[in-house]
Design goal:
By secondary structure, the chain is of the alpha+beta class. It is about 30% helix and about 15% strand. The longest helix is centred in the C-terminal third of the chain and has 15 residues.
Length: about 100
């Protein structure tokens, strides 16, 4: 599919209706501009807003740890403690 659109005032560009429908785009969606060999490639991109004080949770090592924990949970290799019984957990740690 090839369509043409004109750059307007303030560098605005209209995405043709046919493309909006084909890619299920809506007003407010984010579009990434990629320059490759004197061409522009546009593609929709999903964005996630993360509060600055929670950025630590998005670090690769934290995400890897969460995936590992999920795998251990799926394998039944985790032991759960109630908040009322944390002393049992600490005693088991001391034995290890």
């Amino acid at each position: 599919m090839t369509l043409v659109s004109k750059i307007k005032n303030k560098s605005q560009l209209t995405v043709p209706k046919e493309i909006m429908e084909k890619l299920h785009l809506s007003v407010g969606d984010m579009i990434e501009f990629i320059v490759k060999d004197n061409e522009i490639v546009l593609r929709p991109v999903q964005m996630v807003a993360v509060p600055k004080d929670e950025m630590w949770a998005w670090q690769p090592d934290v995400i890897a740890g969460m995936k590992e924990t999920e795998q251990l949970f799926q394998e039944g290799k985790l032991k759960f403690y109630s908040t009322e019984n944390l002393n049992e957990m600490f005693k088991e740690w001391d034995k290890a």
